[in-house]
Recover the amino acids of this structure.
């Protein structure tokens, strides 16, 4: 067994619900976006009796989604940092804060 990961069973039990929740949210968002775009395109076609505006709305939705994906921060890197921070022992954090406060009070 690899000793680099402390409490692997606990980590697995914490990571699986996070993964499934994230996957469910992602699937829901994509499904919702596709259904909304289809509904808007259908309604626009029904009102305008032309495919010209339908193509425009679909291009807008796809373009806005692509632009958002390009401009959004790297959530993978942020999630990795969060996972690394969650692995920190709370006792270590308390010790670091107490050391920080002791050092900062002595420098004044």
């Amino acid at each position: 067994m690899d000793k680099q990961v402390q409490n692997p069973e606990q980590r697995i039990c914490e990571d699986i619900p996070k993964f499934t929740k994230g996957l469910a949210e992602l699937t829901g968002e994509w499904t919702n976006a596709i259904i909304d775009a289809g509904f808007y395109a259908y309604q626009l076609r029904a009102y305008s009796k032309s495919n010209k505006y339908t193509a425009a709305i679909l291009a807008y939705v796809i373009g806005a989604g692509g632009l958002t994906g390009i401009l959004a921060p790297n959530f993978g890197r942020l999630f990795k940092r969060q996972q690394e921070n969650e692995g920190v022992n709370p006792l270590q954090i308390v010790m670091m804060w107490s050391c920080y406060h002791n050092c900062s009070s002595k420098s004044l």
